[in-house]
Each structure stands twice: as C-alpha cells, then as structure tokens.
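User: I'm new to structure prediction. If I give you an amino acid sequence, what do you actually give back? Let's try with this one:
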Amino acid sequence: QVQLVESGGGLVQFGGSLRLSCAASGVIFSIHTMGWYRQAPGKQRELVAAITSGGLTNYGDSVKGRFTISRDNAKNTVYLQMNSLKPEDTAVYYCNRGDFLGYWDWGQGTQVTVSS
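Assistant: Good question. You get back a string of structure tokens that encode the predicted 3D arrangement of the chain. For your 116 residues, that looks like this:
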C-alpha cells in the first residue's frame, strides 16, 4: 500500500518562502510522474506542479515563476520550493500521482498559511 507523508508547511508572511517535502513508500517511486496539489477552504483540490520520472516539470499559471518542483528518486521524495508566497497560496498541500491516471490514497497534507 502506498503511503504519502507531506511535511514542511507552516505560517509565513507575504513574500516569504517554504519548502515542502513528500516522502513516498510502498511504490516504485522513480517511474511515476508526481504532483503537488493544494486545496483551499471551500475550493476544489487543484494540481499546482508536476514532475515526470525524467525530470520534466509543469506548473499551474498561478504559481509559475514562484514555485519549483523537484524530486530525489534515491530518497523517494518530491519537493516543492515555494517563493514569493501570497495569501492566496494558503491551502493544505498534498502530493500524489501527477499523471491524471488515478490517485493513491491521499496523505494528511501539510498546511501552508500566508499572512498579509
């Protein structure tokens, strides 16, 4: 069974930075496209960034130029470096498959709160 454990969230001021981590277990991590998602209160979960097994990346328009997704296959971990944070980035952040072919069980997520 796949387990996803997100960490690194917190409270940060407008313009600040955070680095999120997601450790995966129970899966051959290196072959999968991975994604970071977020869900704000009252809104649907959205994909903000994805990275293929080969390292190609894609970003949602709202985070382009500010967020960077990366992965370390040796550690079965995907990261999300978030810079120039805005209050509208406030959400619970999750990782999962990023290929739209299905999802593993969701982890608990990590809360990111950006104060203005």
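You can read the tokens as a compact description of the fold. Here is one thing that stands out. The two ends are 40 Å apart (CA to CA).
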